[in-house]
Each structure stands twice: as C-alpha cells, then as structure tokens.
Amino acid sequence: MNRLSLVLILGIGLSACSPPPQNQPASTEAAPNTPSSTPARFTAGWTVSEGVSAPESAYVDSASGSIFVSIIGGQPNERDGNGRIMKLAPDGTVVSASWVSGLNAPKGLRSLGGTLWTADIDEVVGIEIASGEVAARIKIAGAQFLNDVAIGDDGTVYVSDMLASKIYAVKAGQASVFAEGDSLEYPNGLLVEGNRLIVGGWGKPEADFSTKVPGRLFALDLKTKAKTLITPQPLANIDGLEADGRGGYLITDWVKGQLLQVTSAGESRLLRQFMPGTADIAFVTTGNVAIIPHLSENKVAAYDISDVLK
User: Fold this and answer.
1) Which among 11, 156, 159, 196 has most CB atoms closer than 10 A?
2) Mean pLDDT computed over 263-270
3) How far apart are CA 246 and CA 264, in angstroms?
4) With 0-12 CB in 10 A as exposed, 13-18 as middle and 19+ as buried, what is 49?
5) Distance between CA atoms of residues 309 and 125, nearest Å
6) From the centroid of its chain, how far is CA 8?
7) In this model, does residue 67 exceed pLDDT 60?
8) Which residues, including other chains, have CB under 8 Å from residue 265's CB and lie 6 or more apart?
9) What is the pTM of this model?
10) What gap in Å lies between CA 114 and CA 159, rounded to an integer?
C-alpha cells in the first residue's frame, strides 16, 4: 500500500495456493459508458499485468459494466503525477490503461450517481464515469494518508486516513472529521451497510508499518458513531473490505497476503493464500468473482471462489 511494499515483502515468502490465471490481451477499443440492458457478465480466470504498476484498489461499477483499478505508479505517498485509473471490461480486457491520468497515488474507489470517487493522499477526487473527466477535487487539510472510500445513500463520501487514525466525511464539497482516535484502530477498509459504516482496522503501525497488534473488523453507527465489534479479537492488517453476499464480509490481509471471510457473528476463516500485497478487492456475487489487486506483484487477477465460500 505504501512503503510497506519495500519493507514487509522482505522475509515474507508465501506461495499462492492456486495456479496463476492466464493473461488477457489488451484492447485499444473504447467501450460504451452507458449501461447495457443486459447485465455484464463478470468472469474469473484472468490476470492483467501489462501496464500495471502498484495497483491498490479494484472496483466494479455495475451501472457502466466496467472494472476500475487505481494505479499508484510510484510511491504511495508521493505527489509525482504518475497515478492513474485503469479501465477494464468484465472479462479483464484492458479498455484503457490510463482512463484517467495525472493523479498522484490513488487508492480506494467507489461510485454513486455516475461519479467515481477515489482517495489521493490528501484529497478526494470525483470523476465523471461517462466522460472520464475529473469533476471535483476536495482537499482535506491535515490529511496524512487517505486510503479507502465508501459512500452513503445520501451521497456522503467517507474516507479513511490510516496513519492519522481518522475517518473523514465529504459532502457538498466540504470535508469534516467523522470520527478519530486510537479506537478506530488505524482504519483502512470502509463499507457503508445500511445505517452503519463497516471499518477494517490495520492496527497501530510501527515505524516499518508492522503492528504489534493487528486490527479488528467493526461497525460505526452513522448517526451516533457508536462502535460495535464484529470480530472480538484482533484479526488482520485489514485492507480490502466487501460484503460477501451472505450476510458477512470478505477482507484481505495485506501483510500476510490472505483473502478471508468473516461472518456477521465475527467468525473468520482463510479462503485463499497469496503473496503479500493483497490490496483493496472487488467482489461480484453473481459467479462469486473476487478481483484482487496484487500490489507487490504489479498485477490484477480475478478468481472464482465458489468452492471456498460458505
């Protein structure tokens, strides 16, 4: 996610538990942005590596039938202008390797009402999906390392700041602190679920971003901000977070390179083991397709996890 890719990868030699899927050829043809009357069929078994440099987040926009991937393209805390958004077709074909360019280090992705939002170090960027044009840039004063993005039904964009242990709320172009403090467990993954914000804690990072105690999965009431634990015990250095379509959640542990399932009762189990660097995932319940950015390996891959889901 950050300089973790330079530090934590050393000494961690975990092997993927399944053979790598096949690369898909790139396409230079543009795909229409308007929704199709026939739902897009998202497939598994593909990998994209060409033109992929430090992919952080994968996101499926069901309205357009597109997969978007945030590409850091350098160091995840540097304002170098190398960041971009890649656009893929449902079968992994590259529609545009640089659908949006000129960003710095974009990370989490979410969309609502035709706008794709991403967190980019210290600002939240809104992109018009139909045109690929940047429509909004909201600078957040004092932000240290904006990470994941979630969106409420009212259009509020929630964004985590892992290093500052804060969550911001952005609405009508204005940013405010939604919650802060050590009780947030240095939040990374975010997901709005009804009247709750589901939060994946990383755990308090040491100088090398390792943790003595990893984070937990918990919920914050969007009105009262009351915290309710989902996993009672520390679980993982949580990065990706998605609903599993079964009342529970899928999460990734960036450090251990794991994809896990967590039930609503807080029970967790390992689904797949990969190399370190499993970042912010997308999940398509139809077909049980998990799309995982492998940040340290510079690739994005789609897996059918039907055989391991419960």
Assistant:
1) 159
2) 96
3) 9
4) middle
5) 34
6) 19
7) yes
8) none
9) 0.87
10) 19
What's the chain's average pLDDT?
89
What letter represents residue 75's amino acid?
A: Q
What gap in Å lies between CA 120 and CA 127, rounded to an integer?
12
pLDDT band at 40 (very low <50, low <70, confident <90, very high): confident
Residue 81 Rama label (left phi>0; alpha psi -120 to 50; beta): left
All domains in the chain, ordered by first residue: 4-297 (2.120.10.30)
In this structure, of 3-12, 55-64, 177-186, 202-211, the range with the lowest mean pLDDT score is 3-12
Q: Are strands 46-48 and 22-23 parallel, antiparallel or unpaired?
A: parallel
Terminal Cα-to-Cα distance of the chain (whole angstroms): 29
> How far apart (Å, rounded) are the C-alpha atoms in residues 220 and 211?
23
Question: Both tokens of residue 154?
Answer: 């009212």
Quick check: 220 and 204 in contact, CB under 8 A?
A: no
Q: CA dist 185 to 176, 199, 227, 236, Å?
A: 19, 9, 11, 11
pLDDT at residue 156 greater than cutoff 90: yes
SS3 7: helix
Spatial distance between the Cα atoms of 39 and 22, rounded to a whole number of angstroms: 24
- Convert the pLDDT of each residue in 170-192 to its tens digit: 999 999 999 999 999 999 999 99
Predicted local distance difference test score (pLDDT) of residue 39: 62
Please state the rounded mean pLDDT for residues 254-261: 97
Per DSSP, 5 falls in state H
Average pLDDT over residues 158-180: 97
| Most distant CA pair in the chain, distance | 51
CB 100 within 8 A of CB 134: yes
Q: Report how far residue 127's alpha carbon sits from residue 116's, in angstroms, rounded to the nearest whole number.
A: 5
- Secondary structure of residue 6 in the 3-state scheme: helix
